[in-house]
């Protein structure tokens, strides 16, 4: 891990892990892929290793990320999908030339068209976003209950009642806030 950069938040849904690389969108936003090198690091961690990334490719990644965020947010509140966002997602999906391959152990791996093709990796992410926004996968798109976050996340819990995009960050913070609020209540003299 490169020093000095915010850590990645890793989820088990590729598209929303990707949108999570910009967190605290309604508060003090944290950019977790501020440089091409950090995008390369993120892609490696998510099974989409590329050898290099240019500034233009990083900008394309940000554009895709914000488009997925906009479309997933609209889908989560059953709103109309923003047409420009849909266009970007589709363009990225069409341009990518990645192939799914099966390993001897029975796992799926992505094979990118070439090692320099960030576009291929973005194509995989765009296709993942399409599958959750289209409702093809078992789960529910929802918005994080943290007021400074409100990130769209994909709830795969059995009860479909998950409230936070990430239990370790947003969930914990809310729990702590509630704990302190309760303590203050308990400290009040009995009526
Ligand atoms: Zn959140």
UniProtKB/TrEMBL annotation:
Family annotation (Gene3D superfamilies): Jann2411-like domain (1.10.3300.10)
Organism superkingdom: Bacteria
Pfam families assigned to the protein according to its UniProt record, in alphabetical order: ABATE (PF07336), zf-CGNR (PF11706)
InterPro entries the UniProt entry points to: ABATE, ABATE_dom_sf, Znf_CGNR
Domain Zinc finger CGNR: 140-182
Protein name in the entry: CGNR zinc finger domain-containing protein
